[in-house]
Write a structure and sequence with these properties.
The strands form two sheets. Strands 1, 2, 3, 4, 5, 6 and 11 form a seven-stranded mixed β-sheet that branches. The chain has a four-stranded antiparallel β-sheet with strand order 8-9-7-10, sandwiched between helices. It is of the alpha+beta class and 309 residues long. A hairpin with a 6-residue loop joins β8 and β9. Helices cover 37% and strands 27% of the residues. The protein binds adenosine-5'-diphosphate.
Length: 309
């Protein structure tokens, strides 16, 4: 038996303007998993701590993603998965993605790395399909490749690793309320106005250019979402007050993380990110709601091995 313990990071998807295509990887928030190669063929979830999630391998995103990989690997293999959850499911910071991406990354490593990081995105997407009914890659791609990623195309899958300016720091607040995925989906319109589309793709281009040229002002100007945020933000208590507080403290931009309810703010430098955290905390202290706040630099590496067991 060969086992590794890994860190499977949380991720922030969409980044305001890039619905379903942009994402980035966090460093201080994530799950741990122990993945083992065993003699007995098949994929089993043997332990879950920290959350109530399905042990059934057809219902857990980690085993579903690994089975997608093994279908292409074609040789018979035995895998056991232990999940130590720290990222709450439904938080909007890639809880299911951490499990899907972590599991396929670890299995690939244990098998001697027959697949590339970009291949692994495809397998991890099978887990995302199970979690949300939609095989999106904007959380699994940054978890697997690290840094910022862009899904240029889904058909065929074309994922691009972007540059990460080293001073960017994320502040994330997770209000502990339940926003039903069905509600956050039902508020989105499936047809958009051409003027809004022009505005939005201008921002996507601006954000990508800003990341590569390390132009922090351009990054800030481009962190704007004229399509999804106006509709979804009404489901998140104090969204506008949090955003105003973050921008007043000097955040470059602020928006909904994934499908919410988490809210992210991106800042230049740790000092500003911590000030943003304090300001957001003050807004939420008045609500009586429970919440977590994370401050994290961008994780350039993605998933990493914590221990060879
Ligand atoms: P998040 O918005 O934080 O990424 P999702 O809504 O994508 O969370 O995923 C949560 C859903 O996926 C829940 O219905 C949960 O039961 C299911 N799920 C299945 N396996 C896992 C797993 N290993 N980790 C997290 N969620 C899982």
């Amino acid at each position: 038996m060969k086992s590794i313990r890994i860190f499977a990071p949380a991720t922030v998807a969409n980044l305001s303007c890039g619905f379903d295509v942009l994402g980035c990887c966090l460093d201080t928030v994530g799950d741990e998993m122990v993945i083992s190669l065993v003699n007995e063929p098949g994929v089993k979830i043997t332990k879950i701590e920290g959350a109530k999630l399905p042990m059934d391998s057809d219902k857990n995103v980690a085993s579903v993603a690994v089975n997608a990989l093994l279908e292409d690997y074609k040789k018979e293999v035995g895998i056991q998965i232990e999940i130590y959850k720290k990222i709450k499911a439904g938080s909007g910071i890639g809880s299911s993605a951490a499990s899907s991406a972590g599991a396929v990354w670890a299995v690939n490593h244990l098998l001697g790395s027959p697949f590339t990081g970009k291949d692994l995105v495809k397998y991890a997407m099978a887990g995302e399909k199970l979690a949300s009914g939609n095989a999106h890659a904007d959380n699994v791609a940054p978890a697997l490749l690290g840094g910022f990623t862009l899904v240029r195309s889904y058909t065929p899958l074309d994922v691009i690793r972007l540059h990460s300016p080293k001073d960017l720091v994320m502040t994330v607040i997770h209000p502990q309320i339940e926003v039903k995925t069905s509600d956050s989906r039902s508020v989105i319109k499936h047809k958009i106005d051409l003027k809004q589309a022009i505005h939005q793709w201008g921002n996507v281009g601006g954000l990508v250019a800003g990341l590569f040229t390390e132009d922090y002002d351009l990054i800030g100007r481009s962190l704007e979402d004229v399509i999804i945020e106006p509709l979804r933000s009404i489901l998140i208590p104090e969204f506008n007050n949090v955003k105003n507080a973050a921008l007043n403290q000097g955040a470059l931009g602020c928006g909904i993380s994934g499908s919410g309810p988490s809210i992210f703010a991106l800042s230049k430098g740790l000092e500003t990110a911590n000030k943003v955290a304090d300001a957001i905390r003050e807004v939420y202290n008045n609500t009586g709601l429970d919440f977590d706040i994370h401050v994290s630099k961008i994780n350039e590496q993605g998933i990493r091995i914590l221990e060879n067991i």
